[in-house]
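so my prof wants the structure for this chain in the tokens format not the other one, which i didnt know existed until like an hour ago. anyway here's the sequence
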Amino acid sequence: MARSGLLVLLALSAAFAAFTPLLLAQLVKAKLSYAWYDTAYILPPIGEIGDVIIDRTSPGNLSVLVEVQGLQRAEAAVGLCAQGDCEWKWGKLEPGEVRSFEFHGREGGSIEVRLWGAEQFVQSVGIYNLASCGAMEGAGKAGIDEVGVEWVDERTARISIYARADYSGGGDIGINLNVWIWHESKSEYVAHVFKGVAIHGPLDLCFRVLRLRIDVGPVKFLKDGTYHIKAHLRVRHGDREEEGSAERTIRVGRPVYHVVIRAVHADGSAAAGARICVDGRCAHANSSGAVAFELEEGRHAVRAEAEYDVSGTRIRYSGERDVYVSGDASVDVELRPERCVYVREFRLDKAEVEPGGMVAGRAEFVLARCCAGCTASLVVYGWKGSEVARLWDGPVEAHRVIAREFSFTAPERPGRYCVTLNFLLGPRAPPGEEVGRACFTVKATPRPISTVYVTNATVPAGGTGTVKIVLDRAPGGLSGYSLWFTTRPIVLLSNVTAYCRQASLQCTVADVRIEGVSFPDWARLSDWRRVDNYTVELRAVDLSDAVRPGARDVTLAEIAVRALTPGIAIAWVFNETLDDDYGYPIPVAVRPGVIHAAGCPRPVAGVMPGDIDGDGLYEDLNGNGRLDYDDVVRLFRHFDDPAVRECWWLYDFNRNGRLDFGDVVALFRKVP
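here's what i got, hopefully its the right format
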């Protein structure tokens, strides 16, 4: 090892340049005060360089005298390198002994004195860029170039301090170097080493760099843990002073590795400022979300937390994982939010509303970083589970306040209803997670009465015809019905008589029987049962929700009838039950229809009237195939003709069950 050290020193000597002739009769003297070593912790070196005196013996030649203070009994080598040549001299040192070593050589631009012993490089003093200068330029910056650590064994280290002082101008320069060593958090003091250097030279002598290396140690560490090394340099030149310092941390005991813990969100973004803890030791992450830890080999518990304030909404993230450390590594900890969506507001503009009235709402929310490249949806659902409004549907835009407004129509039925705000992340099936709820009340108002009526029909005696059963309006829609329909003459005899009396007619009860039943398209599920020739039971259900709230003139069924005898028959509905879309019963009044079985229509003033639209009413009295004002005039002029009076149901345009002048007015209003 000594031989390899000498080779290194010989290689370093190549930097030595020639002294200039301006150095005639100049003297440089270096004074190094001795270090103090605490032998409980630090093994002192074999010795230290004392004075270095440089003189000129003749033009172009140097004389260098080196004094070495012995600290241990050992053999040592002192070397001088100049102009690329290194010369070594060996000698024995005794504790407290001062020995001198003299060297001769040619002038050059720098010199370096080195002390070697016990197979280790101990100390060196280097003065570089030596030259003459005409005026004092003052001291330059001082600093610690490096704090190096070389491990002798797993519990013993040699610490090398490289100190530097830039210098220009003659006079005195003093250098003090202090080295401290603490255990763990600098609460337990281990050792302190002091080294001082004094340089003396004429005012016209300059050197740009003085470099001092001191080996502290080997240092024996008494227990495992982290040790902190601090080196502080102070350079004084006249009334000016410069300082510099450096620190280094080392670990003693089990192997320690450099592990970077990085806190990231699910979308891959860095959690800047996150609090990262490893086995209870915590630190805040930098702008990249990272914290560096020195960790022993083995398993460690890692936890990270982050919190963000988005306009007053606090979003909290956390994540944890176990990490096994076996070398230098970089580890990511994924942070997950407490919730994916933070609802700041979800409300309706009114708590009470009229049936079928409009309700407006507002939602305000903030999305968190839940996943990478995923989409989110926020949907308002109504009281029947159907979608009312879609407030957000797309990529997650995290950490910003999003506001949306919506509106919907309240139901017709009184009661309390609620809408919900539901959150869906990615491909999650509806309705997702409920994150908001708002309720309102539909006021109770008098419910309107609907009417189930049967259309009138004229059937030739011995022939067939059709009547319809119609619901005039369905405020809450129609989900289904059940009812009975009859043309039975015995049961309805009194009704027939009443109609004839109102129409001032002499009439008889016709025998009208039911041939068959057909249902409209909305009645996907329907059925009917014949009770007898005159009565049937009907049932139908709106499976496709085709009859919406507010519908009018809804056909419930069409009944095919046959007239066996002439006269008047009343078509009647009874035992009726109808339900709306909300499950409430529909209150109804029943209005029967009139079936006239006779030789009607008859010619009026020699012209056979016609039914233009097939509704059982004969509007075309002049027989020209259309409705015009002449038809109104002919009805008025022939109002009392038997052809009109005896076939009154054909001209009952106001549908009040009798013939009166209101029918003339009603026909007039129908003229396009």
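also thought this was worth mentioning. The longest helix spans residues 2-12.
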